[in-house]
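step=encode ok
step=design start
structure_in=
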């Protein structure tokens, strides 16, 4: 069940600050406060979805398409030019700590030799 008091819901409502990178009608992208790479941005859809399963099963098609377009626009805004990773943790065993669907966009110089 979705918790309206999770940190991302509060950020989307403007109750908590964030360093915004990109925003449109479908998603908000902002800096991760605990980065694990030189660039570490989170993209969250504007809707109440707990994880990728909930999002793909229940979000309207327009929101799903808009979210992934926002992910692309965030990558373009950051100028990552084919040097990034997208990660979506699903469930506590996989490291998901905020149960509002989101993806991590990460980039680091070392990725150039990791792929």
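sequence_out=
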């Amino acid at each position: 069940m979705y918790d309206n008091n999770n940190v991302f819901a509060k950020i989307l409502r403007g109750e908590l600050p964030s360093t915004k990178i990109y925003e449109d009608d479908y998603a908000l992208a902002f800096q991760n406060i605990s980065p694990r790479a030189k660039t570490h941005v989170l993209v969250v859809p504007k809707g109440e979805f707990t994880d990728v399963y909930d999002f793909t099963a229940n979000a309207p098609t327009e929101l799903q398409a808009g979210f992934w377009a926002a992910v692309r626009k965030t990558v373009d805004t950051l100028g990552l030019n084919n040097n990034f990773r997208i990660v979506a943790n699903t469930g506590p065993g996989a490291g998901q700590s905020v149960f509002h669907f989101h993806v991590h966009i990460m980039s680091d110089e070392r990725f150039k030799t990791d792929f």
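step=design ok
step=annotate ok -> The chain has one domain: 7-114.
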